[in-house]
Every structure is written in C-alpha cells, then in structure tokens.
Design a protein that fits this description.
By secondary structure, this protein is of the alpha/beta class. It has 2 domains: 2-176, 3-Layer(aba) Sandwich (Rossmann fold); 189-278, Pantoate-beta-alanine ligase, C-terminal domain (Pantoate--beta-alanine Ligase, Chain: A,domain 2, 2-Layer Sandwich). The chain is built from 10 helices and 9 strands. It has a 6-stranded parallel sheet with strand order 1-4-3-2-5-6, sandwiched between helices. A 3-stranded antiparallel sheet has the order 7-8-9, with helices on one face. β2 (24-29), α2 and β3 form a beta-alpha-beta unit. α7 packs across α8 (152-164). The chain binds adenosine monophosphate. Adenosine monophosphate binds next to α2 and β5.
Length: 287
C-alpha cells in the first residue's frame, strides 16, 4: 500500500495509475477503522482496478468540540487493517493539505435534507461533510465512491453533492449495507468509547429498529416512533429522534407510503449513536 500525505503527488500518481489499472474506487473515512470500513474497501476492490482510502478527521463537520477532541485515533492499526484488506493507496493528509491557504468555503444547497434529523441536531454538519468530500473528490477524482448505509442521510447528501458539482456522470455512488456486531449493534468508531455497561445497553438500538420493522405493516408510523422513543429512554438512552421517513426525502412518512426507512439517533452518556433500517420489503435491509 502506498501512503500519501500530500494532495498533488497523489493526484499525479492516480492520473498514471488510472491508465494502467483502470477505474479508481474511493473510500473516505475518519479512521478508527472496523470491519464496516473494510467491507467498503472489499466492495471497491471487487468493482474497480485501484482502491484509495482516505483517513482524515475533518474538523469542519464536528458541531461539537468535545466530540472532535475525543474522536478515536488508531492510525497504526488502521494501516495494518488496510494492508490486510488489500487497499492500494492511503491518503493521510494533515488539515493544511485538505484546506490550504486560500481554500474557498462554499455554501452547498442541500435543501430540506439539511433541515431534518442529523441536519437539525448537528447544525453545519452536512456543510462540513460536503466541504471535505468535495475537496477529496477533487484530489482523488474517483470513478466509484463507496459509502455506508449506516450514515443514511449522509449518503443522500453526497448524492446531492455529486449532482450539485456536476460529478454525477463521472463518479458513481455505491451505498453498501451496514455491518453489525453479532448482537446487532451497528459497527461504529464511536462504539469503542462506550463503557462496558453502556455497550450492553447499546444493543437496544438495533432491537428497537427491528421491532419497528416487524410492526410496520400493522401500526401507524407516529405510534411506532413514540413507542420506540419510550423503549430507548427506558433502556437508558437520551433520544434525539426516532423517525420513520420517506427514504428519498427523509420527510416524515405519510401513512401508506411504502418507501420507508426508520432512523434513530440517541446517546449513552457522552457517546451519540445513529442507526437505521430500511422498511420496504423490496429494498435491501440491514440487520
Ligand atoms: P466514518 O469513518 O465514520 O466517517 O465512516 C466512513 C465510511 O464508512 C462512511 O461511508 C460510513 O457510512 C461507513 N461506515 C461506517 N460504519 C459502517 C458500518 N457499520 N457498516 C458499513 N459502513 C460503515
């Protein structure tokens, strides 16, 4: 695996590699890698000629300074894991490479997507996500971009970013299923910050989502949301939202609309977790 810490040599390397190896796949991450990240690397390897992973803890997408300060950094084991998965290139830039002097901060028109759910609870978060992904796409120019359904709203936002920046024809977005621990907890870098007691409570999140899916056909969405909030609160979570939404717009699901996804965000102590489950039977589900 070749490691680049600066942008220009990486772009030049990839221009040559594209001719030799074929399409380039890209997996942007913030490190503290787990099997969920590696599944994206493996998908990329299966579908492209050369796989690039980036590890960059992007300060502009953190609306909470404490969350940024405590974000896990495990770079040595990350590198080992990427080599083990057969990743070809790692981009590991410092902040000044991603946001050099003169970097222009744009405002991305994300419409209602930015106003709901994570957008409402994490003001500015998706502008920061767009800022970093826009810049990383400029550097890597991938043919295929791999992201996890775990961050459902982020995938919709990035689809919109590709349209807004006229890259939709050039970079294909692939949304891959959420990888879970054996007990159902969605894998996340933040899970390693859970105390053993909170880790035990955390399994309720995916169980509550499965409960929603099981009752979805027979129970109105608002009732399911309220029940889930009660269940999570009783399990010890501080709930930001449980929402049964249209899976294209993320607006509250109208009764009878089959294009449904259940999304949840809730904290155990200082650790905020998110998860989701697609509810329509025709769409791929996780868990
Ligand atoms: P992060 O490092 O958390 O920014 O995540 C980097 C990429 O990995 C994003 O596209 C995430 O959606 C994806 N990802 C995170 N957790 C999982 C998971 N449990 N299963 C699949 N993909 C994931």
């Amino acid at each position: 695996m070749v490691i680049f810490k600066t942008a220009r040599p990486l772009t030049a390397f990839l221009a040559d590699a594209r001719a030799a190896s074929g399409p380039i796949g890209f997996v942007p991450t913030m490190g503290a890698l787990h099997e969920g990240h590696l599944s994206l690397i493996r998908q990329s390897k299966a579908a492209t000629g050369l796989t690039v992973c980036s590890i960059f803890v992007n300060p502009t997408q953190f609306n909470n300074a404490d969350d940024l300060k405590h974000y896990p950094v495990t770079i040595e084991s990350d590198i080992e894991m990427l080599i083990g998965a057969g990743c070809d290139v790692l981009f590991l830039p410092p902040v000044a490479e991603v946001y050099p002097a003169g970097h222009e901060k744009l405002r991305y028109d994300l419409g209602a997507l930015e106003a709901v759910l994570e957008g409402a609870y994490r003001p500015g978060h998706f502008q920061g996500v767009c800022e970093v992904v826009d810049r990383l796409l400029e550097i890597v120019e991938p043919d295929h971009l791999f992201m996890g359904q775990k961050d459902f709203q982020q995938c919709l936002v990035i689809g919109r970013l590709l349209d807004l920046t006229n890259r939709a024809g050039r970079t294909a977005l692939h949304v891959e299923p959420t990888l879970r621990e054996k007990d159902g907890l969605a894998m996340s870098s933040r899970n390693r910050r859970l105390t053993p007691a909170d880790r035990a409570k955390a399994i309720r999140m995916s169980q509550v989502l499965v409960g929603i899916r099981d009752r979805f056909a027979s129970t109105p969405p608002r009732t399911l949301e309220q029940t889930a909030i009660t269940e999570l609160t009783e399990a010890g979570f501080k709930v930001d939202y449980v929402s049964i939404s249209n899976r294209h717009t993320l607006l509250p699901l109208e009764p009878g609309d089959p294009a449904a996804v259940a999304l949840v965000a809730a904290s155990l102590g200082p650790v905020r977790l998110i998860d989701n489950l697609v509810l329509d039977s025709s769409a791929p589900t996780a868990g």
